Amino acid sequence: MALFNQSARKDKEVWQDVNAVPYIQIEGVTKSYDEVTPLKNISLSVYKGEFFSLLGSSGCGKTTLLRILAGFERPTSGKILIDGIDITNLPAHKRPVNMMFQSYALFPHMTVYQNIAFGLKQDKLSKSAIDERVKEILNLVQLNGYGDRKPDQLSGGQRQRVALARTLVKRPKLILLDEPLTALDKRLREKTQFELVNIQEKVGITFILVTHDQEEAMTMSTRMAVMEEGKILQVGVPHDVYEFPNSRYVAEFIGSINLFDGIVVEQGSDHVLIETPEIECRCHATCTGALPIGSNITLAIRPEKIMISTTKPEYQYNWTQGVVKEIAYLGDVSIYYVQLESGKMVMATLPNLLRLAERNFQWEDTVYLFWRSENSLVLTS
Q: Is the pLDDT of residue 114 over 60?
């Protein structure tokens, strides 16, 4: 029998189906320690086969929520259901959940085979059943021939795959990943991200990842939740969270962004006009929500949405002038830091289509920045 159901993964957009039943249901979960409340009435639905990420800075409550899902902590109030079964009060060892720790937590005195087989032996499976499962999982994580090695004979990426194999081999309904790639260097981390996603898609098990790395969450997730101070601020697919943040905090936390405080001076059916003291002309922004004239808002523009020119654009709106003060060369792109007449520093990112010596803009050049209305985000919170 195959170790995993290769067709177990659901449609990646199952959450858009009003009739779909969540696989993991977190309902009103609060956790308090004396006067500290790291989780405040958290409710969240995760669907079968998702690779879901909890994203936030240190202390936002994401690891506390993961530990509650694992059974290492009990919520002060609220409940958790997996596949329709309330597991809120089940001890960790009785939950259909496995957790992969940041440190990997491998037994140094055991071989790779013994590390992976440990949980199966605790469950008293037969030797033949254990051998079959371990061999199949070693093949899945591409570690055939490494079964007799000890952890100290493996690279960081190989140890990470052993830890993943150990969580997969018991066939849990849910796998929890606690910042599993932190110890890897950048190049290996990027490679391992795709390996994890590919393995997760093959096995069809639901994954919940905790990370503070926005790029990691954006790369790996079907959906993600941005957390701050024990609350979930926004849930969505990576593209929507990046392109349409629902608050200033989310906009700043996910990627780089330019923010301008402004006021609404005109409202249309599909746009608003904004005045900000930091930009000399009015800004035209696509907006379908009701924003009364006089509303205080934040205008947000991603650096890659801004265009640069040495000649004044023929735009009535959405342009400004400044001086290039810094250039950060990153190989594939360059980030230009342009100081406006108001003193505001604005970031603009351009792909390096030309060699360094041939680029059009240099330090202390006077340039014009401009952008499209649909790339202007209007934030009210």
A: yes
